[in-house]
Structures are given as C-alpha cells and as structure tokens.
Amino acid sequence: MDTKRIFRDFNHCKFLVFTCLLPAELFVSLYLDSVINWSLWLVLLPIWTLKVLVIAGALVGTIVWCHKPFRRNEADGFTDFKAMLITVGIQVLLLLFELLLCNKIESNSPISWILVFTPMYLVSTLSIGACIWGYKNARSTELESLISLNTLLFVFVSLKLHNVIHWNWSVIFIPLWIIMCLPTIVVLHHLWTLAFLRSNFHGVDKQSLVLDTIMWIAIDVPLLTFEILLASRLDQQNDISWVNIFIPLHISLLGLIWSTFGRKGGNTWWFGLREDFCTIFLRICPFMRLYGNVECKEREGGDGSEIMMMPVVTQVVCKSPSKCEPVVAVTHIATPD
Question: Is the pTM of this model over 0.85?
C-alpha cells in the first residue's frame, strides 16, 4: 500500500468534476422517472455549483496574475495561465448551453433546438483549436478531445430534436459508437499484455498494469452498457426505468473518480494557488503527513507462516513552513492470527 502515491498523483480538478457529475446524473434519473418533482434548475444544482467554482477560480487566478507579475516567470506559468483561460472559456460555453437547455425544457420556449445547440458548435470549434495548442505545448487536453470528437454527434442530436432528420437514436449515436472503440481497444490491449506478460519483462510493473486494466474495465464496460440501454429506451425498444438505465453510468463515474487518485495533473493557477493542492492540504492538516510518508509492503516471514507489514520511510510529501521532522517507522507490524 503506497499512500504516498495517493497524495502525489491526485488530480483534484478531475475529482471535482466527476464528483459533481455523479449526483447530477443521479438526480436526472430520478427526475425522468418522476420520483422527484423538482424543477430542472434544482436537479442540475451540482452542475451549477461546478460552474460557479470554475468561474470563481478563474477570476481569482486572473487577479493574482495581474497583481503578482513575478508569478509569470515561474516554470510553465504562462502556459498554465493560458490553459486555465481556455478551460474556463469552454466551461462558460457549456454553461450557456445548459441554461438554454433548461429554459427550453422548463418553459417550453419557442427557441429552436438548433439555436440551443449553438454553444456546443462553438465549443467544439474552440476545443479543436485547444487540442492543437495543447499538442504543441505538451498539455493534457482530454476534455477538449472528447468534445471535438463528438462534434458530429451534437449536430445529429440537434437535427433529430428539430425533426429535420428522422433516424433512429441508435443511428444518431454512430459517432459515439466509433469513439467508444478507443477505450475498448485500450482494455483489450491491457488484457493482451497481462495474458502474455512474463516475469522477465523488464520495465513493466505488473501490479500497476492490473490496476489500470481493472480501472479501464470499470469505466468502459458500464459506460458502453449505459449508451446501449439509452439508445434502446429512446427508440422505445424497452421499458426499463430510467433509474436502472443510469446505474451503469453511476458505476462508470465511480471508476472515473477512482482514476483521479493515480493521474497526476491539474492546473495550479486555479484560485491563484500556484502550488499542488495536496501540498496545501497536507500543510493545513499536518497529521495527514504520517499517511503520506509511509509505504507499507507485505513480506512473508522466513518460514512462510507470517506476513508482516514493513513500513518504509519515504521522502516527505509536504514540508512544514517552519519545521519538518522525519517520520519514524516502526520496525514491523505483524498481522494478527
């Protein structure tokens, strides 16, 4: 068990996004089954919370950028700031689409569906440019890539809702089926590697590979199941309740939340922090440093009858502003019989 990796490789930005999406889609499923009679504006409260945090974080980061010019000379400071502006621009356009969508559904507005989806056309164009910029600057552009690849899907859905085309939803989702082939290929590649992995393969961490394979399966299979059930329900080929249809999506989002603990990243310009989130967290909560500086490994005893947890003192994750004391490891911790 390496708790140091949890703090070191934690991606707080993705964790916040997926944590807000989980209750939002849970409320949507209950709303569609008429289990709750809330307004759609209230159903999407987690989404509005996410947007407020994103916009507030960008505003504070911009103020820090303007009032502390010396921060611009830090490593990748200017690139991180531009990445933050691109992200908040995409989020603002997504917010505009969500507002138009809620207004269309709640008040039965005469606005056409094509106009409602106009922000998605714009955000797709912006995402394509962001992907090119991210490739040139070695930046992660997962959200931008996902949006740009679904551009054709947004066009098909808007035309379907506007009654311009009368295709089945399974045909409308063809761009989505094509995109879902990519994570499926990743899962098959991981399974193939595990099947033919030998102990004499140098540079391959089998434990990490197994965990990555389980994570990808937990994300890809439920997500694909949800999309199939959704298309079948929209085409009126089944009468499965919306709550049951959304269950695979819950599992997939839980897998995505799990993945944030092993995917280092996140822009440090949000709220003008300019430090890793876990570094600040460990500074505020010093007692958590014990768990962030000790790595426990299992080792069998000499006769093979006892398994001991051997704590290993590792590099301190977070140093105290005033004083930093090394963590003293216990000689061994034997598991009870």
Answer: no
